[in-house]
Amino acid sequence: MKLGVFLTLFRSYTLEEALVIVSKRGIKTVEIATGGYVGNHHLKPAEILGNQEKIDEVKNLLKKYDIEISALSCHGNPLHPNEEIATEHHEDFKNTVLLAKELGVDTVVNFSGCPGESETSQRPVWITCPWPTDFSEIVQWQWEEKVIPYWIEMGKFTREHGIKVAVEPHPGFVVYNTETLLELRKVAGDNIGANFDPSHLFWQQMDPVEGIVKLDQIIYHFHAKDTVINKRNTEINGVLDTKTYRDIANRSWVFRTVGYGHGEDTWKGIISALRMVGYHGAISIEHEDGLMSIEEGFEKAVSFLENILITDDAGEMYWA
Fold first, then answer.
1. Could you tell me the domains of the chain?
2. pTM of the model
3. Phi, psi of 145 (to 5 degrees)
4. Is residue 25 within 8 Å of 302, Cβ to Cβ?
């Protein structure tokens, strides 16, 4: 495992400026955004694809700072009922796969997507309970009419190009937990795996260690991000919370920098579980902490994870 960072944290900098910042902190691998909701501030596939000179520029820049790309990420909703958004995110996905191949990157991170409730929908519809039976019927329609056909197609496309897809389980999309990820993999193929992000699991009352053990060899990428659960707000209102993330005091849960939601013992358990199942990829820091600046959140995350991970001469990170 190598300590890395989702480079979209430093979206206000050029690619080289961002690489300078993270390399000074000992980061050896970066995840780079290429479209979807996360944008493409550092790599724009449409401008680079098929241009060997630009591809070489990117490779040489990475070599200059002794950094590898762990994954290209285009977190989007290619199943969006708005055709314009769906088309844009689908093209981002396809172009990211093609760019990954040209750059020699083997993993692309994405969401599963979420359709509407029918052909006339204008917005995605995420179902959280089975009754009234309308809800169960919507879930069945979404998977049979939208999810399965799309992901069979994209599973085949990504396999043809030798790319693994790390789908991030995320509430709001049809893949949001362990069993929905496994269901998608069953229909789309064995190059579909997980981008494992504990922060989206904590508030659902899931145990990341158990999830890691269950998913085993199909964890293709990992996000280091934490969640703190407000005990009182949760006891009053439960964990389903649509208030803005900025309303930190009143929400049932909020995202935090690693170590500020769960302590070292929890994160040591997560890292050791990853090692136990044979994960050798990036521990990619993602920052969405509303109480810290980007720079502070990044620095604290690196320091926290350095206390848990040990680096040998080859740059490999092991559980302490």
1. 2-319 (3.20.20.150)
2. 0.95
3. -95, -25
4. yes
Q: What tokens appear for 148 in the block?
A: 């399965």
CB–CB of 286/6 below 8 Å? yes
Query: How many residues comprise the chain?
Result: 320
The sign one gets for the Cα dihedral 278, 210, 38, 182 is positive
| CA–CA dist 28, 259 (Å, integer) | 21
Nearest to 242 by CA among 128, 74, 75: 128
* Per-residue pLDDT of the chain in tens (320 residues, 90 and over written 9): 899 999 999 999 999 999 999 999 999 999 999 999 999 999 999 999 999 999 999 999 999 999 999 999 999 999 999 999 999 999 999 999 999 999 999 999 999 999 999 999 999 999 999 999 999 999 999 999 999 999 999 999 999 999 999 999 999 999 999 999 999 999 999 999 999 999 999 999 999 999 999 999 999 999 999 999 999 999 999 999 999 999 999 999 999 999 999 999 999 999 999 999 999 999 999 999 999 999 999 999 999 999 898 544 444 444 43
